């Protein structure tokens, strides 16, 4: 690739008397100090995810104190079901990110924008044409599968239906954030995420507890507030990509119809991640069915919702930030022809993740009851089970943070199939197999389930590291000429 420090040539896809400058991709990602490059992408995403995680914690605290711990269980099981679907649909954004990072690393903005627009078209169709109607109709059956408690299902049904029907804004936010990060801009997604979280928090307070003429919607109010906040941010993102001004946007002068060559490439790289997400979240739903079969099912589900889906998200969401950084930096460096630099970037991200998870794990292990108390969890059975789970998660976080960064390295370089196979083994077969065996041979207890989760995280970490160190991702090719016509 020829050296070019100016990067201000005319965009060939546009016409007019005034020259249009190419987007200025951040070349420090492929040329500057490596730790700084990883951290530049990671810290805005980690901060955004941590703030978003705090917003979820506030939601749980509000419904736990205003409605009761069964509302915590309702949101927890609804979110787990929702993840199964949205992670699959959002898999096209992984395919998008692979292509965007490669093209940004090679400094080809026209192909970046063409990829982003095709990902947008696909997301709109899937969200409006598939996710909303199918999710609404199947919600009661899915809830019946994961919970035997009628009160929990009654709280969860309106929450889940609202979340499915109005998921469009969230998908657009995910798409925009992934495209910008892969192109080297992590600060704009951070600002979008902070605005969305603040809006979400304010609206949820209003709709959960009521204000003036607005009645208290309880658990459903959390879904209403989230849908309005994500919808507003999604519409703003569409406007910015249409009008220009970001490092990525919609292409000008190339037509607005679907480009099936690009869409096939999105699914080629993205579908394995989608199946990986389905496998992991179906495993999570099946794990919920084991939790629901316990003698103290409601208390265990509430402890799981607060400890695992909320507090543990402080580890997973920050690790997901590092996963995105590893993917973006590795992908851009592969595009620029620097495979050794890509390898080193992923190892650097893993070290960052290990330090962060160890810090949070300290509080999980030594102060679990105080953390659970934030959510108004005072039921003795729920507290005892929650403390038990928090202490297991203190160790589990060490392994999952490393696993996620190496997963990002594999996906960012184009190896999206290996994480799929690893996830099936580590997140489905091992933990569910342990729970199934114990339930048949003895009496299944909450601790058995928590240790099964830990075993899955350890396995995922080991397999992810081993697969990345094999280095087969170095030979993966992206055929730019046939992918983008």
Short key terms for the protein model shown above:
485 residues, mainly alpha, 18 helices, globular, disordered N terminus
Helix content: over 70%
Low-confidence stretches: 1-23
- How far the N terminus sits from the C terminus, by CA atoms, comes to 20 Å
Tell me, what's the shape?
A: globular
Domain count: 1
Explain this structure to me?
With 485 residues, the protein is an all-alpha fold. It has one domain (34-483). Helix content is 79%, strand content 0%. It contains 18 helices and no strands. It has helices at 28-31, 34-66, 69-89, 91-105, 109-146, 150-165, 168-182, 187-209, 219-243, 260-292, 297-311, 313-335, 339-366, 368-373, 380-412, 417-441, 446-470, 480-483. Helix 2 (34-66) runs parallel beside helix 13, helix 3 crosses helix 11 (297-311) and helix 5 (109-146) packs across helix 7. The longest helix is centred in the N-terminal third of the chain and has 38 residues, at 109-146. It is globular. Mean pLDDT is 85; it is low at 1-23.
């Amino acid at each position: 690739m020829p050296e070019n420090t100016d990067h201000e040539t005319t965009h060939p896809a546009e016409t007019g008397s005034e020259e249009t400058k190419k987007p200025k991709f951040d070349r420090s990602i492929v040329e500057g100090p490596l730790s700084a490059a990883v951290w530049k992408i990671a810290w805005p995403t980690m901060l955004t995810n941590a703030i978003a995680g705090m917003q979820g914690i506030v939601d749980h605290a509000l419904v736990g104190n205003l409605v009761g711990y069964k509302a915590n269980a309702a949101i927890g099981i609804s979110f787990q079901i929702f993840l199964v679907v949205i992670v699959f649909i959002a898999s096209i954004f992984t395919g998008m990110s692979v292509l965007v990072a490669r093209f940004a690393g090679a400094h080809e903005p026209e192909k970046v924008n063409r990829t982003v627009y095709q990902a947008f078209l696909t997301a709109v169709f899937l969200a409006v044409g598939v996710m909303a109607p199918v999710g609404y109709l199947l919600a009661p059956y899915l809830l019946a599968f994961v919970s035997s408690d009628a009160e929990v299902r009654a709280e969860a049904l309106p929450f889940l239906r609202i979340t499915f029907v109005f998921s469009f804004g969230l998908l657009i936010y995910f798409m925009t954030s992934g495209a910008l990060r892969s192109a080297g801009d992590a600060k704009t997604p951070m600002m979008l995420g902070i605005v969305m979280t603040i809006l979400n928090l304010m609206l949820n307070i209003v709709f959960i507890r009521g204000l003036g003429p607005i009645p208290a919607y309880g658990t459903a109010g959390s879904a209403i507030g989230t849908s309005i906040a994500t919808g507003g941010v999604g519409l703003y993102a569409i406007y910015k990509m249409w009008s220009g001004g970001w490092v990525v946007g919609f292409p000008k002068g190339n037509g607005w119809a679907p480009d099936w060559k690009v869409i096939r490439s999105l699914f080629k790289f993205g579908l394995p991640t989608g199946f990986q997400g389905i496998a992991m979240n179906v495993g999570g739903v099946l794990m919920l069915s084991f939790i629901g079969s316990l003698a103290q099912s409601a208390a265990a589900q509430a402890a799981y919702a607060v400890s695992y889906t909320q507090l543990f998200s402080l580890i997973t969401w920050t690790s997901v930030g590092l996963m995105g950084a590893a993917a973006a930096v590795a992908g851009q460096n592969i595009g620029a022809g620097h495979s050794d630099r890509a390898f080193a970037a992923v190892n650097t991200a893993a070290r960052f993740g290990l330090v962060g998870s160890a810090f949070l794990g300290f509080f999980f292990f030594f102060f679990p009851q105080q953390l659970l108390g934030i959510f108004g969890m005072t039921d003795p059975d729920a507290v005892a089970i929650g403390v038990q789970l928090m202490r297991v998660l203190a160790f589990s976080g060490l392994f999952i943070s490393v696993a996620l960064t190496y997963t990002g390295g594999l996906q960012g370089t184009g190896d999206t199939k290996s994480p799929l196979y690893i996830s099936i083994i580590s997140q489905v077969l091992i933990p569910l197999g342990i729970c199934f065996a114990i339930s048949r041979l003895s009496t299944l207890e909450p601790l058995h389930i928590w240790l099964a989760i830990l075993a899955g995280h350890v396995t995922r970490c080991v397999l992810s590291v081993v697969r990345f160190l094999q280095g087969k991702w170095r030979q993966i090719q992206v055929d730019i000429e046939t992918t983008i016509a």
